[in-house]
Write a structure and sequence with these properties.
single chain; 197 residues; alpha/beta; Rossmann fold; 7-stranded mixed β-sheet; 7 helices; 31% strand; globular
Length: 197
């Protein structure tokens, strides 16, 4: 995420976003499955960590957690939690190679431009160890553009997302569909895909 308007919205509404999402993130069955798929004590990256709720759960499970987000205020909230480190960084700053046992991208990469999406997936694949696990959640739909708050979104169909994942070298192992109310008050359908490198 590098869109200034999107980052500005998250900086301004970080606390409200945390109130809206923290409970759902900590009770996410997909997060439980992700943790179980990572080797005990493994190293994971929370990519677009927001206020850090998922990072907290992963750290409490004994994983070595790194967290990153483009919003300075989200990083501030995440850094208030013990057990992991959080830093401000954009998706394009991911340059690691073969160091993570898992990468968790829960409703974060939906803010990346469609033209940049393949490069981000390729960087995630490179950053994972062989057979490293990856989870991505995105809103379903078509096109790209701002929401009611001015945040930039790219939308994908299930088949589109799976195709992008496969082209990046991922094997999709599970999917989950749902819907929920976002920060802008609108209800959106979403998809979560579990995969490995």
């Amino acid at each position: 995420m590098s869109d200034r308007e999107t980052i500005s919205v998250y900086d301004e509404q970080a606390a409200r976003y945390a109130d809206l999402t923290d409970e759902a993130n900590t009770e996410d069955p997909q997060l439980t499955r992700f943790i179980q798929a990572v080797p005990k004590g493994g190293k994971v990256l929370d990519l677009g960590c927001g206020p850090g709720a998922s990072s907290v759960i992963m750290a409490q499970a004994g994983l070595e957690v790194e967290a990153m987000d483009a919003s300075a205020e989200m990083v501030r909230l995440a850094s208030a939690h013990p057990g992991f480190s959080a830093r401000q960084a954009a998706f394009s700053d991911l340059k690691a190679e073969g160091i993570y046992d898992g990468i968790w991208a829960n409703f974060s990469l939906l803010h990346a431009k469609r033209a940049d999406f393949p490069n981000h997936l390729a960087a995630i694949h490179r950053a994972l160890k062989p057979k490293g696990v990856f989870y991505i959640a995105m809103k379903l739909g078509q096109g790209e553009g701002p929401d009611r708050l001015g945040r930039f979104y790219s939308y994908y169909s299930e088949e589109d997302l799976k195709t992008y994942m496969q082209k990046a070298g991922f094997t999709v192992t599970a999917r989950r569909l749902g819907s929920g109310t976002g920060l802008d008050g609108s209800v959106s359908d979403w998809i979560g895909l579990a995969a490995h490198a």
